[in-house]
């Protein structure tokens, strides 16, 4: 059995607060899912670039870590975080985690 066709002048029941909240929540979660996908693909691209750096360093017997560059990157990321209204402490922690992983990969390439 199908629903009755819309009749002229017939109005849908108004959306309840809970229905509206549920609809808005679904939209926000969709946005978050899209942003998560962007983050994952961006990180994959970043790691591809850092792997190329690691291979170059290994080929030329350069150290896996570059503390001066890391310090510059931390400062740069803090500025970007401030500009983006993101907690710079969180941004710095996030970058530190990524840098540790990059160095680990570089050390593997060197050995």
TrEMBL record:
It comes from the Bacteria. It holds the Pfam family CM_2. Keywords: Isomerase. Its EC number is 5.4.99.5. GO terms for biological process: chorismate metabolic process; salicylic acid biosynthetic process. Residues 19-110 form the Chorismate mutase domain. NCBIfam families: CM_mono_cladeE, PRK09239.1. This is chorismate mutase. It comes from Albimonas donghaensis.
């Amino acid at each position: 059995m199908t629903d009755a066709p819309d009749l002229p002048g017939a109005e849908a029941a108004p959306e309840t607060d809970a229905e509206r909240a549920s609809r808005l929540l679904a939209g926000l979660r969709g946005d978050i899912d899209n942003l998560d996908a962007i983050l994952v693909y961006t990180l994959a691209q970043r790691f591809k670039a850092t792997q190329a750096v690691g291979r170059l360093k290994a080929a030329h017997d350069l150290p896996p870590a570059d503390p001066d560059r890391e310090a510059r990157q931390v400062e740069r990321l803090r500025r970007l975080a401030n500009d983006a209204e993101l907690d710079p402490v969180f941004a710095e922690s996030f970058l530190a985690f990524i840098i540790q992983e990059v160095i680990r990969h570089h050390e593997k390439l060197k050995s």
